[in-house]
Structure formats: C-alpha cells, structure tokens
Write a structure and sequence with these properties.
The structure is a homodimer. Chain A is an alpha+beta fold. Chain A has 2 domains: 2-75, 3-Layer(aba) Sandwich (Glutaredoxin), CATH 3.40.30.10; 85-190, Glutathione S-transferase Yfyf (Class Pi), Chain A, domain 2, CATH 1.20.1050.10. Chain A has 7 helices and 4 strands. A 4-stranded mixed beta sheet of chain A has the order 2-1-3-4. In chain A, helix 1 (11-23) runs parallel beside helix 3, helix 1 (11-23) crosses helix 6 (157-166) and helix 5 crosses helix 7 (180-190). Chain A is globular and about 45 Å long. Chains A and B meet through helix 3, helix 4 and helix 5 of A and helix 3, helix 4 and helix 5 of B.
C-alpha cells in the first residue's frame, strides 16, 4: 500500500490526498510535524533530500517528491490528465505557474500568518507577496470567467493543484469574496465525486463518506 | 516557423533557445526588453497573461508559456524526455524543484544584482535567497557526485532546465568553485552536440557553428 508522508494543513499534501481519494487508491498517511523540524531529520532527508512534504512511498524505499510531479505520476492514464499534446501542455503551464508564482505568494503568506511569527523585518516581504498573490488570483479570475475548469472543459490535476491553496487563500490574508469566478469554480470542484476537505484525515475509510 | 519572445540574459529563455537548437528546429527570436516593461504591455499580455518571457508562438496566435512546460512540449518523443514512467517522474521532480526552489533563489539573486538596484530594505531578502540558493546547489552537488546527468545516465531537459541558471550562478553572488561535481556536470553539458552559450543570438545560422 502507498504510504504518504504528509502534514495535514499543507495544501501540497492535500493535492495528493485528494487525488488518491478520487482515484480510489488506498494509502497510509504518516503525519510529519514540519513545525517541529521532523522534515529536516536525517531519516526524512534520506526520503527527500529537499526536506519537504509531501513524499509518496510507492514501494519499499521508492519515494516520490514534489507535489505536482506526484500528481502527474498518479494521473497518467486517467481522466485527470488530458492525452492531447496541446491540452497537456496547457496543464503543464498551470502546474509550473502554480509552483513558481501562485504557491510562493499565496501558500507562503498563509504559512507565515498561520504558523510563524512574521517578524517586523519580513513585513515588507509579506506585503510584496500579497501584491503578487492578488495578481495571481486576478489572472485565475479572468481565465475562469470564461472556463468551467482550468484546462478544457474537464476537471483535471490542474484544478487540484490550483484549488489546494486557492480555496484557503483567506487564511493567508487574501479576500476571495472579491473573485466571483474563482468562488464558482471552487463550488464546482467541491461538487466532484469523492471530494474531501483539506482537514479530512480518516483515510482508513474508503471511499470517504459523501456529504 | 516558430517565433520565440525572449530576453537574451534570461535563463528561462535560454532553456528554449538551447533545446530548439539541439533539436535542429529553426525559429525566429524576438527580443522583449523586460527591463523597459515590454512584457507588461497590453499587446504582450494578450500572448501571456502572466507578463513574462519566454513565450513560444507555435502557430499563428497559439502561444506557449512557462519555460519548463515548453521544454516538455518540445521534447515529447525525443531522446531529451525519458519514456519510462518512473524516470519521467524523476524528471518532473527536477523541473518543479527548479521552478519552486532553485529559480526563486538563484535566478532572482542574479536578476537583482545584475539588473536592479537592490534597495537596503531588500538586503535581508537577498541574503535569505543566497542561503536557500546555496542549499539548492549543495543538493545538486550531492546528487551529481554519483550521477553523470540529473536523470538516469542521459542528457535530458532536466539538465537543460537546471543548467540554465546554475552555470551563471556566479553572476548572482554564488561561488560555483565550491561545487566540484556541478562544475564537472557543466562541462559535460557544454560538450553536448550543438550546445550554444546563453549569450548566443545568431539564430539565422542553423546549425550553430561548433566550437
């Protein structure tokens, strides 16, 4: 059985939990308290040298890291990943944009506000990330005002990757109420079969109870 | 013919120039002066709403963005992209790690030092990025001390993606001389057929003159 090294509040971890659940793949979840340095232990660094969760152990001592790489690994050959070459490239664009622009702005702001004491000398940097995060949300808003999902007309791992930190952006100091198309997209995603919230952790029960 | 919207000093642009050249695909290069806001014009934002180069126009009005997504688009079906599922996932791991960890630390430091006047209030942030950049280089150093290339034993787009900003890291205030395995890897990459330096711009001549 797959084993997921994870931290429950993490959006990057949530991406993997959500996709595994929607694919009906059972897994064991192992909580790693990143706030207490557990992802920087020598034991953990042997699993992922960059010292970050999520890590998916797909067989004994074979570890996958980088949440969006794991999404691509798991979704190959499923309806969550388009087969058309150009559509798949559009999906790649969203996945890289998420890791390069969206996550550093929105997820970092949330992490700093929820878990760290943002010292006075980081306040400027937090403001800068809020500005970049609002630009990122505005870009999504414009795209989603004419599209039901991010790529084509289907729910894919691009939606999972962007949903993870977007739907909790308020916790990072953003105002989702300003973004109507994003809010409607969030509702469409929550209505997908076997959707689970980011706080769901009872993975002994498959499939998860539907609302 | 493909048309590449580009900025010559950009490592992200260089990735695409290098792969197109090594694949023997002719293209027209259009310089976009990002320092003068040319990537933020309404005309450019219609090509890429996130306002960044590189953008590859693959047919009239079909624009691809996100450098690593473009690498994946171009390399499909070529020796630059492994077909094995796990090997390909390893390659994805490097591409996402590059955009989430390596590039924000190393490329940003280089951009700030080479092109921007880093104001006093950003000095702390620059120091933080130097620390993260040195951690990233140490991770690559360890990996490359037992591997000739990043994924398997072959030169792939993972090497191109990481080479782009690593080989000019000195320009961002890093000391590559400390990293022997990285230096040897850089030399292996420079020895690949049809390699071009980041400063090469005479793409009217195909293939480029070999050294």
């Amino acid at each position: 059985m797959y084993r997921l090294y994870d931290f429950l509040p993490s959006g990057n971890g949530y991406k993997i939990r959500l996709l595994l659940t929607q694919l009906g793949i059972p897994f064991e979840r192992i909580e790693v308290n990143i706030l207490q340095g557990e992802s920087r232990s020598l034991e953990f660094l042997a699993k992922n040298p960059s010292g970050r969760i999520p890590v998916l152990e797909i067989e004994s001592s074979v570890f996958l890291s980088e949440s969006n790489a794991v999404l691509l690994y798991l979704s190959e050959g499923t309806p969550f990943l388009p087969t058309d070459h150009l559509q798949r490239t559009r999906l790649y664009e969203w996945l890289f944009w998420e890791q390069n622009i969206h996550e550093p702005a929105i997820a970092s702001s949330r992490f700093w506000i929820q878990h760290l004491n943002v010292a006075a000398d980081r306040k400027d940097e937090l403001q800068r990330r809020h500005r970049l995060g609002n630009e990122a949300l505005a870009l999504m808003e414009k795209h989603l005002s004419t599209q039901r999902f991010l790529v084509g007309d289907c729910y894919t791992i691009a939606d999972i990757a962007l949903f993870a930190y977007t739907h909790v952006a308020d916790e990072g100091g953003f105002k989702l109420s300003q973004f109507r198309a994003i809010q409607a997209w969030i509702e469409r995603i929550k209505a997908q079969p076997n959707h689970i919230p980011i706080t769901y952790s009872n993975f002994q029960s498959f499939p998860p109870p539907t609302k």
